[in-house]
What we know:
The protein is mostly beta strands. Helix content is about 10%, strand content about 45%.
Amino acid sequence: MKKLLLTPLFAVTALAVHAQNVTVTGRVLGAQGEALPGATVLERGTTNGTGTGANGEFSLSVAPTATITVQAIGFATQQIPLNGRIRLDVRLVTSATDLGDVVVTGSRVTEGRSNVLTTAPVDVISAREIKAFAQTDVSQVLTYAAPSFQSSRQSISDGTDFVDPASLRGLGPDQVLVLVNGKRRHNSALVNINGTIGRGSVGTDLNVIPTASIKRIEVLRDGAAALYGSDAIAGVINIQLKDDSTGVSSSALYGQTTQSDGKTEQVDFNVGIGLNKRGFLDLSGQFLNRAYTDRGFTDTAPLIYLGSGGNYPASATTEQARRDLKAQDDALVAQNGFNRNDLRVGQSATRNFGGFINGGYRLGGGYELYVSGGASYRTGRGSGFNRLPNQATQSDLNLFPNGFLPFINTTIYDQSAIVGVRNNFAGFAVDLSNTFGRNELAYNVDNSVNASLPQGPNLVGVNPTSFYAGRLAFLQNTTNLGFSRRFIEVGPLANLNVAFGGEFRYDNFLIGRGEYASYINGGRQISTAPTASGSQVFPGYQPQDEVNKGRTNVAGYLDLESDITDKLLIHAAGRAENYSDFGGNVSGQLGLRYSITDAVALRGSLGNGFRAPSLQQRYFSNTSTQFVSGVANQVLTVNNDNPIVRNSYTAGGTGQQGFGVEPLRQEKSTNYGVGLTAKSGGFTLTADAYLIDIKDRIVLSAQFTRTNPTVAAILGTLPVSRVQFFANAVNTRTKGIDIVMNERLPLGDKSRLVLMAAANFNQTVVTNFNSSSSTVNNDQTPGTSNLQNTLFDRAQRTRLESGNPRSKIALSAAYTYGIFGIEGRSVRFGEIKTADPDPARAFLDQTFSAKWITDLTLSAQVTKQVGLIIGVNNLFNVYPDQLIVNPRNNAANFNAPQPAGSTQPDLSYSSGLDNSNRGRFLYSANQFGFSGAYYFARVNITL
């Protein structure tokens, strides 16, 4: 009888246990018994999965009857039924056929696909690749690892010195969408208003995310607005955070250039913590200290203390008079110890503290709570253009008798948080989440003056030399609810994945004013000449610049994907959005993949997309000091709602006159793609061509000057010489091709060779000019001050079409033998071009030739816990072509100017006949920077 009672009790207990998940732990090893960090462990048929930690270990809660899928690059995938086990130690076999990374970007299917089996191209950069070389931030890692991505550090460009502009497939920084764990990442607060790549755009600051927190980066090279919404015209970058439940890893890097500057110190860590076998918490942190570099050259200004602005006075009309003045000035230079290397040209100095978390926890009842996010605090210091002691309208000679080099100091705060919960209802995987992000950039100026304030010896120590110049802040909060389900045998279809959901988003942009002294005009004059207002190098934001604007967005989407046959995969998506400030948009996308053979397939996509004008583009305004041909100008940037932009112009009219430009509207795109994938043995190939048409592209105009009478009337008595604003000014067409090839060759029991070749070729052309303003279109002013020419001049057109490399080729090889490894990479950055705004000065146009940058590293896994890497970036110390310097831009040029009416050529000194800013600024940053060779050492520790 007792046995009869115990039997059903055991049965009930067994059924109860069977109904609950079990936690499976284990370790994934390679063919030689080495640990495989970053391998993927999935519960087959679900999205439930994890990655292995530094020692190849994993922990995953699954159903007792589950089959476990284990995948790693270069190894054959294994499917392992549990059959009652809760511990799995898996040794993978090297494979020449299973090379694709499983990716989740570009589709909402419940199971990831290999990146060679998707309908759109996806690059995968693993955690190992991120640490292989000396790049310490995400934008630089991607620049060298993904040929379609381009970013370079700028110099002397205000806030853009500290937030690197980045582009994908030759398009703008704001035409690529960034995700973290599949959730939209907020933009930077900064809008680029100076003459750099991405001028007028608002990008995403990738460098606030510690590289130690990243499991992999997926780069979707296809328009994806129908999947993810605004900004995804060029593609999507999805940063997947580490989700280890065990292990500790850390690294330390030290490096500097061969010029003994640019010193970099980086320390990071990552800790995986198991949460009572019900979840994980992954913690990462990073400290980065990067010193400035200086590749400035000697100032060619003939006169430092005499003359005006470095030039000879009008009275010096003979060669002898110029020689005499130069001799007197040189004596003052020697007497005062003035250094003619008076400009700092190169990367800014920066210090960054950042941390990220990523976690998940099973609550019971099928609910899983997940959370991720981080915070960073980054300071930066970069110089502006120096003020000479003979530039009295921009200086205080009582404070700075030898002139001064002003500095912009930035503090960037960034916070983000993702909180969500998942469960299954009625067969659907349901995901509810909220994503918050905020980015703030505060400006401080030091070693500077407000030249308009009263001056005198008695005011030394009273007038400020440092200023708080204001701040920018951007906030975004996004709430998502998504449903997905994979149906099997739906009518004639073998399977059908259905995903749908909705999104509500709130954006807010804020400009906060600087302190009073940072922007005020104190009224000081020299004779009758006015002096410059505000803190020199960066006048503070003024009360009229202050703004606090928000908007909302509501969206819904539908995503369908099906293996129609064994050979044909079709993916379709649609999305409708409505913005509170400018209206709605509908996007759609269709993609397919057809397997010609088991090894070769064709794929293609067709879709339309859009990009909403950012709040920064709508509402940003400020007055800045910008140097044009070496001359300081007060430039007013007005927002698109300002009467200066919006009002019409009437000759002789009253009230605030304007340019009559329409409100900003969304950019609209059409994307076409076609590609081929192939794999054979250890070789894989993907080749994908694309065509992207963009209508009503938003640009920041060139600077309208008072030389145009209409501009003079519009600006009236405002204390500025130039004005610029945002407008939907042009249509563009971008076409190109991406090619990626990989080969993995096992060479024996202890050695392996991995080869990679990748390339991007792209071309962007402006196909149409879109101004709807009769004031702009009907202006008859000849020359470069013509309003239509200024709205989008030839300098801007060249920057948009050829400012980024039109091609990039990357070749790499990694060889390992036992504990030793050697890895080399060479990247060819294609040519870029610059142009002068004035066609009459086309002699200043320049093409910078393509260059190869070669990196080399040597590594040794000294023990299971300690690994060493030493290496060099830019092994051959390659620099971009130098800017051409006109022979007349020479401090030793004493030629006298020719009198009016002379037929002889004028050979006198002139710094305005080239782009070198008095011979000091000789490199363009837009290919690969100009820091030269860089040596480093890194120690990796895993416990």
